[in-house]
Amino acid sequence: VLLILAFGPGLALAKDKIVLGFSQVGAESEWRTANTQSIKDAAAKEGITLKFSDAQQKQENQIKAIRSFIAQRVDVIAFSPVVETGWEPVLREAKRAGIPVVLTDRSVSVKDESLWVSFLGSDFVEEGRRAAKWLVDYAPVKELAAKGEVNIVELQGTVGSAPAIDRKKGFEEILKNQPKFKIIRSQTGDFTRAKGKEVMEAFLKAEGKKINVLYAHNDDMAIGAIQAIEEAGLKPGKDIVIVSIDAVKGAFEAMIAGKLNCSVECSPLLGPQLMSIVKDVVAGKPVPRRIVTEEGVFPQETAAKEFPNRKY
Ligand code: AHR
């Protein structure tokens, strides 16, 4: 009886606190670090107990983490899937256990759409379109196109991930009406600076001065590539026009230094919206199936003015 009296109120309190299991992709980029911080801060602010797991860019680790959240009977599972496919079995397990799943940042490709309740994140296809639209309108590139071909090299994100697939798709959708614009090389840089540098070195070795433009699926790969371009004795932002995605502080610094020409925004600050979805799901309130993050485009000439306002 004493035990029940002693633990009774504590147990009641613990039960009132929402428990969220979150499986993060990893720590591959400046964007991802900001995203993790946003989620941790928002959970703390809302008094939500966060069980956080870092998958180090491996799907098998995410599946393990989700299974462990199910075993711990968390109230909600949220995750940012490293790749789009291969999620059905583990999501069915979550559904059977009655645990709602919220997709954050990236989506999954599953036949049974009842396996997740809400998807919060950017429209990656639109980001790819925005990068291409900026490029075809950029005066120095227009001049090049007037004279001849515009040779583009592309650094793709993680193979099989939603942002890599969609950003490629959106970019190509705009360029298909631009016969002068050619993607001459395209390879994954896995969303990291180190890989971005390594693959750009290979592009430069193979194509040299033929390269007019670099399109990088994120800023980190662009920043790595900038180093490779400089080491090859070329001027990033001038000899090679560079457009990338995320608009992290590192990209603004590169733009202010004249080494990056444009960054398309992809906001990692998803924590507050995620916590509000989690609270609504637990309260049994209806939640939107899809919430698209609002974002802008930052060409180099806006960088110095915008930099002090950047939060990530
Ligand atoms: O899913 C969002 C992407 O993942 C960001 O653009 C990239 O920087 C991150 O690693």
Automatic annotation (TrEMBL):
- Coiled coil location: none
Domain annotation Periplasmic binding protein: ranges: 21-285
Localization recorded for this chain is: Cell envelope
Q: Which Gene3D superfamilies match?
A: 3.40.50.2300
Q: Does the keyword Ion transport apply?
A: no
The protein's UniProt keywords, in alphabetical order, are:
Signal
Q: Which InterPro entries match?
A: Peripla_BP_I, SBP_2_dom
**What family, per the record?**
Belongs to the bacterial solute-binding protein 2 family.
Q: What is this protein called?
A: ABC transporter substrate-binding protein
Q: To which species is this protein native?
A: Archangium minus
